[in-house]
Amino acid sequence: MRHAILIMAHKDIEHLCRVVEYFTQQCDVFIHIDRKTHLTPQELEIINGYGQVKFCTQKYAVNWGGTSVLECELYLLQKALEQSDAEYFHLLSGQDYPVRPLQEFLHFFEQNAGKEYLQYISLPNPNWEDCTFRRLQYFYPYDQASLQPNPRRWVQQQVRQQRVKGIKRPIPDEFDHLYGSSQWFSISRKGADVLLNYTRQSTSLYRRMWMTFAPEECYVATVLINLLGKDDIVPSNLRFIRWQKENGNRPANLGKEHFHFLMEQKYFFARKMERPYCETILPLIDRYLLSDTEVQQSPTGGWVYDGYRKYEYEEAFCNWVTRFCQDVNIKSAIDMGCGAGYYVAQWRRRCLPFCGYDANPYTPALSSRLLAEGETPCGIADLTDTLHIECPFELVVCKDVLPYIPSSFEPIAFHNLAALSTHFILLSWEDTSSTIGINSHPIKEQDLLTHFEQEDFVVERYMTALLRLSLKRKDCCLLIKKGLQLRTE
């Protein structure tokens, strides 16, 4: 399956080249660079020298918020349809950056062939123009404002004058339902054909988009959802965008403080990358998300791994632990075998009293990038060592650790878990058929319970049933509780 990558860039040519270099296989790249950007002959030669670049132009002067954005977007899409046999078309900006290896990107769309990825909402919506159609009813002359000292302020003045004079356009009625969306999308060839054929054959709505505010954020979604229906349209654009004002912009200019967001959901690209802020996050993405190192394993089963990608993150598990801690008012908790610290970071953001430890010597450095600045990173401790525990915790979480501990070390590991807990131990482990090839062995639940019964822990059956229901599992997870407390309640 081939992919057409449409890139709308405007100034940072060096960053543009970094993005182009990512698409080395099964990708054709089509580039539009804002006509207002001066390019040297050497820069043009570098861009056109990439084998994957099939087309590069400066046809339009593109202005934020203007009709020129939609015109440029559809022009690039048309060129890609004409010059590539791609089955998918991905619209990016020159400030985007990949956050998953290319092979993972290609595999995802092979597995989800035919689906359209477009983040959208029905209009009107409280999160869109205060539940109004304001951006469609007034003239927003952004394409005429480029020579003004402050283009955005000038446009807002024009809109205020229209309100004073009672100038107001009717809401477009070509379709019964209007939709708003993010500008950025990944759509199939069928979706691209439908969009461009409608634009050529039914020009009314396209012409009506003239001088509306950010028309591409309404036009594409309205056409595709009305003509294709919602069944194959996934309301996600697979891009990470931080919709808050940070680092001088909204959406945020990304820096290292946003690195942890890139691993919590299935994103393939992130934006906005603006210098100097992005200079702190791009090396982390290159080192930890676009490449990886092999996992080494100590004799006691602990990982030696300076990376993130091989650690799994399960949102349902994180949410269940959050609710449980809130319901029973947990005042102290520890994640033993916390890996890179994904869960500890999430639980702390939810104001839960978690610390974390792992046998991996890289854990403090890995976790520090996921935690808020100034927070204590996760520490180093091996469950198979003799641990000196002065202050046990109400809850001990041990996830995806037990299959890696050699059987000869299990008694001391189980004893340590029991000694760490005053109330609860939450155990969750992978079925060994899903492990990544590192030395591991199957865990038998009954053997596990026999060990912990000797430490005076028994199954909390009701909460275990809820846990399994939430995680959609039949086994491989348990909540056990100090047996003495069960007998005295």
Keywords:
2 domains; 17 helices; 489 residues; single chain; 21 strands; Spore Coat Polysaccharide Biosynthesis Protein SpsA, Chain A; Rossmann fold; 18% strand; 5-stranded mixed β-sheet; elongated; 7-stranded mixed β-sheet; alpha/beta
Give the arrangement of secondary structure elements:
Blueprint: E1 3-9, H1 13-22, E2 27-33, H2 41-48, E3 53-57, H3 67-83, E4 88-93, E5 97-98, H4 102-111, E6 116-117, E7 120-123, H5 134-137, H6 151-165, E8 178-181, E9 186-188, H7 189-201, H8 203-208, H9 216-228, E10 233-234, E11 239-241, E12 269-271, H10 282-289, E13 296-297, E14 303-304, H11 315-328, E15 333-336, H12 342-349, E16 354-358, H13 363-368, E17 379-380, E18 393-399, H14 410-420, E19 421-428, H15 445-453, E20 457-459, H16 461-471, E21 477-482, H17 483-488
Parallel strand pairs: 1-2, 1-4, 2-3, 6-10, 11-12, 15-16, 15-18, 16-17, 18-19
Antiparallel strand pairs: 4-9, 5-12, 7-8, 13-14, 19-21, 20-21
Helix pairs in contact: 3-7, 7-9
